Amino acid sequence: MDKSTFEERKVVINGSMHDSMKHDSAHKHVTGTADYIDDIPEPAGLLHGALGLSDRAHAEIAAIDLSAVRAYPGVVWVFTGADVPGVNDTSSNGMHDEPLLAETKVEFHGQPIFAVIAETRDAARRAARLAKIDYRDLPHWSDIDGALANGSPLVYEPMTLKRGEPETEMANAKHRIKAQMRIGGQEHFYLESHIAMAIPGEDDEVAVWSSTQHPSEIQHIVGHVLNIPSNAVTVNVRRMGGGFGGKETQGNQFAALAALAAKKLGRAVKFRPDRDEDMAATGKRHDFLLDYEIGFDDDGRIHAVDATYAARCGFSSDLSGPVTDRALFHADSSYFYPHVHLVSKPLKTHTVSNTAFRGFGGPQGMVGGERFIEEIAYALGKDPLEIRRANFYGQPGSGRTLTPYHQEVTDNIINRIVDELEETADYQARRNAIIEFNRSSRFIRKGIALTPVKFGISFTMTAFNQAGALVHIYQDGSIHLNHGGTEMGQGLYTKVAQVLADSFQVDIDRVKITATTTGKVPNTSATAASSGSDLNGMAAYDAARQIKERLVAFAVEKWGVGAGEVQFLPNHVRVGDVEIPFPDFVKQAYFARVQLSAAGFYKTPKIHWDRKAGRGTPFYYFSYGAACSEVSVDTLTGEYLIDRTDILHDVGRSLNPAIDIGQVEGAFVQGMGWLTTEELWWDAKGQLRTHAPSTYKIPLASDRPKIFNVRLAEWSENTEATIGRSKAVGEPPFMLSISVLEALSMAVASVADYRVCPRLDAPATPERVLMAVERLKGM
Q1: Separation of alpha carbons 503 and 633, rounded Å
Q2: 596 — alpha (psi -120 to 50), left (phi > 0) or beta?
Q3: CA 4/CA 497 separation, integer angstroms
């Protein structure tokens, strides 16, 4: 792409790229008029589905009696895995290890065994509880320790990253530390739970409305389960009430169940689990047990790292392979490891299969990398920021640019980001003041930390880095936009519409944003890996380019001018010395039989990855950022407040600064919840007990930092040819929240005069903080 395409213009349109614009549905969100699947007018004869869930963590199904379920008033049909006409499997990776409905064995508490279809949702749910199932219990383990103790199999082939000679060089390090860290999981807790509605069509056709980030996968799975081709399945997604990765694969089951019942009964069917069922039956962020050894010198410079990342993956593979891979990809955080050996261990547990969550393993890897820095800082009695600087990746030619997976870091701006934030947040003066405060404060202790972010952008599965878009211009000059990306509140639709408005130089209200559907753009990738704008924006740009080339050729022929004399100006087209309103120009092109529609396509260049060798260039570029957080801890209770957070984040040349700042703010708060209050807990029977708002604590508005300063690095511009030279913003800012965990750690460390690394596990709940305080008091 020619960079000049995106140069500033003296006359601008309403809705150009790089403008701050409101989300296209913002006014609908706040007024309640945005339509989600449960708001769609119900088709005549709509039936409702409910799940029959297991109450064992691991058991054989000895006998099942569904007679009382079938006899319940309003029940139309009850079905099991034996009724599946195609393949009883919803796995997204071809490993066939995730049944739609369990038939002979259950492998987690809450696994669906049967489904009930009834005239009302209430009847379906009440009937589902009447089943009589006899089990033969089998040994079960629900956590990483249990999996390791029982020699649990792996759900996916582990990955190893190695560079240098860590085996021998670790012994040569001046200092060595060997320890362990637990990193908790996280529930997605989207406002809109999983939901799907299916309407049967003629022959083998079925239309599905699904709250999913991956319509093409829903299409594939429904066809797989019903034994029909993908061309018979149309999946529609206008918007989701949150996704965060949880709707990349986890919607498969509900869509397949709804479609199966709809085709069987010839009536529309809707599945909408309540919050408890949703949390019990769908996957979460992986929790990790990190065993590590680090070697370093007197200056705090890392010499060698050896680490194993064991993960609770659940009963099936789902996305655990690539999630644990990405944890290893980000185990370096922002730091160069001269000698490194990293191993993943994706363990099978008798819990719901864990899945994608914002950051996709990256946050777990990165928080481990920051623990390495923290260990070194407390061992040497230094400011952690000093240790961070000593270990940052260098510039090309420094000999400190090679990642553990052998990709060169060529776009490094982390030093500038950190230097600027250190100054604007007044880090040094505040840190000195906090140390002084802690010397005289008996019960309240403060902490401050400035942590960096370096996050790789692209799907690590190379084939997923492609996208399509369909653009029509109608005779009146209005534009119809469709692409494979899905809208989950992140503003993707608005950004891609801005790309089109900018390309044709028309006001954005001329661009109609339409629902994502497999009937218009086929074979799409999930809206994930922070790639939605990168991929779909470029696909839309490509479609616009094709149409513009035809329009320019038309103008050259009709008016006898050179191609350089045809210019797209705000809401006009200049041909030679004549300016024609855009709608009039388009209408003339139509009567000249110019094709005013195009299918655009884009595939990310330069990337490749060899998983077995642990080498390649899995990422197109890196996004950077830094956060400085200050906390106050009550050492009598372990309770704490986030007093202030300052953020400087890199999004390249922002496509929409207003939306991007909102993404940074939201990601930080969500990450803060993961590291502080959100704790998943299974009982001895393998039942998830944190299954509702009463027991699972997401951050409230009152939990946000009391002072919250967020800025974008306006000087940044992507060195790669992304759309508008922008950078991804979905996942990278999530890791800014690590600054809160590190600040809490400093506050706790003050109890022992900063001589000992507190080794706070995540989430650092008040209970864990209090236990750490008591432990350090005795040192």
Answers
A1: 52
A2: alpha
A3: 20
Backbone φ, ψ for residue 563 (5° rounding): -60, -30
Query: How far is the C-alpha of 179 from the C-alpha of 36, rounded, in Å?
Result: 47
Residue positions counted in the chain: 779
Closest Cα to residue 762, out of 674, 694, 700?
674
Query: What is the H or E stretch that residue 208 is in?
Result: strand 206-210
Helix (H), strand (E) at residue 262: helix 252-265
* CATH number of the domain located at residue range(s) 42-138+194-272 in this protein: 3.90.1170.50
d(CA 582, CA 617): 43
Considering the chain, tell me which residue range(s) the CATH 3.90.1170.50 domain(s) occupy: 42-138+194-272
Triad 239, 245, 246: Cα angle to 5°: 85
Select from 535, 536, 527 the least CA-distant residue to 471.
536
Looking at residue 730, what DSSP letter applies? S
User: Which H or E run contains 343?
Assistant: strand 339-347
Question: Is residue 482 over pLDDT 50?
Answer: yes
- Grouping H, G, I as helix, E, B as strand and the rest as coil, residue 18 is coil
What's 466-603's CATH class? alpha beta
Contacts of residue 69, defined as CB under 8 A and 6 or more positions apart, other chains included, come to 52, 75, 78, 114, 116, 127, 128, 130, 131
618 Cβ neighbours under 8 A, 6+ residues apart:
329, 405, 407, 456, 458, 460, 462, 607, 608, 609
- Residues 753, 31: contact at Cβ < 8 Å? no
Rounded CA separation 628/668 (Å): 12
pTM above 0.90, yes or no: yes
With CA atoms as reference, report the closest residue to 335 among 362, 309, 363, 373: 373
Nearest to 483 by CA among 502, 493, 468: 468
pLDDT per residue as tens digits for the range 367-380: 999 999 999 999 99
Q: What is the token pair recorded at 71?
A: 């006899």
694: which 2 tokens? Answer: 């009463």
| Residue 1, both tokens | 């792409």
CA separation for the pair 698, 701 (Å, rounded): 10
Which one-letter DSSP state was computed for residue 583? H
Radius of gyration (Cα) for the chain, nearest Å?
A: 27
Instruction: Please state, rounded to an integer, the average pLDDT across all residues of the chain.
Output: 97
Mean pLDDT of 104-112: 98
- pLDDT tens figures, 532-551: 999 999 999 999 999 999 99
Specify the CATH class of 288-460+610-778 in words.
Answer: alpha beta
| Separation between Cα atoms, residue 350 and residue 363, nearest integer Å | 24
What's phi and psi for 48, nearest 5 deg?
-125, 145
Query: Which are the catalytic amino acids?
Result: 731
pLDDT digits (tens, 9 = 90+) for 378-394: 999 999 999 999 999 99
pLDDT-based confidence at residue 428 (cuts at 50, 70, 90): very high
Domain with CATH 3.30.365.10 in the chain: 288-460+610-778, 466-603
